[in-house]
Design a protein that fits this description.
By secondary structure, the protein is mainly β. The chain has one helix and nine strands; from the N terminus they run E-E-E-E-E-E-E-E-H-E. It starts with a strand and ends in an 18-residue tail after the last strand.
Length: 122
């Protein structure tokens, strides 16, 4: 899971946003501000998200988050799978800003190999 917009991390007032891909072909865009919120419900399927051969089998995903103009996008395996208005994210109960720390977040019982983690600016 790629995390962006991290502010106040480790405090009761933290906020951040992440995009995660699952081995069943679905993804989720979720955040904390400081309570949990979801931008695409409990997730949705997208053909760009790689599926594992079977439950519990490894699968690779390339995940990116992009903030451009007034939009925030989740990009998986080179395809934009979700785009959200910045105004719907930077608001009471959600993000303080789209600026902030970035990084990775892992779910429970997940093994991962991270390569080429970086932030770029146009």
């Amino acid at each position: 899971m790629i995390v962006i917009a991290g502010n106040g991390l480790g405090t009761a007032d933290q906020s951040f946003l992440y995009c995660a891909a699952y081995g069943n072909g679905s993804f989720i865009v979720r955040g904390f501000g400081p309570e949990a919120f979801q931008m695409n419900g409990r997730g949705e399927k997208n053909d760009a998200v790689h599926k594992a051969a079977r439950a519990g089998e490894p699968v690779s995903q390339e995940i990116a988050m992009q903030v451009k103009g007034d939009k925030v996008s989740c990009i998986i395996n080179g395809t934009t799978v979700g785009t959200y208005d910045k105004a719907a994210l930077v608001t009471a109960g959600k993000l303080k800003s789209t600026d902030g720390l970035y990084g990775i977040r892992f779910a429970h019982n997940t093994d991962a190999t991270v390569t080429d983690l970086k932030m770029t600016k146009p």
